[in-house]
Amino acid sequence: MTARNTxxxxxxxxxxxxxxxxxxxxxxxxxxxxxxxxVRNAAIHYHFRGKEDLLxxxxxQYIDLYNSLDKQLRAVxxxxxxxxxKFIERYSCLVDANSICIIGSIASDYNTLPVSxxxxxxxxxxxVLKLVEQTLAAGKKSGEFVFPETPKTQTLLLMxxxxxGVQLARIxxxxxxxxxxxxxxxxxxxx
Amino acid sequence: MTARNTxxxxxxxxxxxxxxxxxxxxxxxxxxxxxxxxVRNAAIHYHFRGKEDLLxxxxxQYIDLYNSLDKQLRAVxxxxxxxxxKFIERYSCLVDANSICIIGSIASDYNTLPVSxxxxxxxxxxxVLKLVEQTLAAGKKSGEFVFPETPKTQTLLLMxxxxxGVQLARIxxxxxxxxxxxxxxxxxxxx
DNA sequence: ATAAAAACTTACTATTTAGTAAGTAATCCT
DNA sequence: AGGATTACTTACTAAATAGTAAGTTTTTAT
Lengths: 191, 191
Description:
Tetracycline Repressor, domain 2
């Protein structure tokens, strides 16, 4: 009651993000976050007027994250192989955490979201697809990757393999994800 | 109020299934079904004690559906190409209905389900994977399909492409799904 | 024709959820 | 030091959700 926590807002976003990835957007309430944070329900409303505002902020942070990730990897001149490895690693971590990717999770609840949030989700998806496509295109040019499809098509195939791969792993086990992951890499190495 | 509807139970399952595929399992309530069916809330409880029982029945019906589909296609001696076409067609219809596949939808809410339902979902997924794998294996043997991976691995790649493809289409539009669909077929025809 | 079973409705209750208004304690600013 | 601002809490309310108990109508079976 005495000590004031200055990063409550960040914690709310962190917990909210984790809940979406593990239970789904429409499966948690402010009460769940409040309990985990040991604050009252109204404290969440103070930081985010409603659940949609929280979701909006969560997506904004993902957009920022991918933009900085891209900038950073460019800055250090990371190869296409390393860049893609880091990207895939993110999905492997999701499997270990019994979670799915935020985009896949939101896709299920997409029709229940207000237009403003839908548009932000679209922005995020477009960004991620663009970054992966650039990586695949660069890798093809440098000879690191060999694949028959256009970078755009190969990106769609790779992204859907990963996104649904973590969803599947949740149901049938990690082995299926690992099989998919290895096949993705084989395909890019000119299997 | 006078005429008694003998297929209310089937209608509940139909509407429930549609709601899961369009809005997600945790995004609808019995009231939504009751309103669409023009009956009282308690009528839904009469047929299905709780939401989990309804979900359980919905999954059972999918298991039955895929089993009969398999039996029927075997009975008429359908080729691997035709069988797979029919299967893919199901996903294309989902896109047109602004829906996603039931497995993908449930995967998002998976951690909120009781163990009994989780096991049934696993059964369904295993069945679908088995049927597709058999089709791919048969197609490879007959020379209809040419692919470098094992039938099992190719099935995982194909299924994840399709499942996440319809999810993606919901956000970025049908074009991306069509690109994926064409690429899947190219891959099987020895692209 | 009637008893039993099926398919509901009415009428509740308890809990969760989303949200607001008003008050309080800590910190920040000058 | 004093006023404003921030970050909450307490204390509500309104609506949605899940569910039950008891009664009513319709259909089925004998």
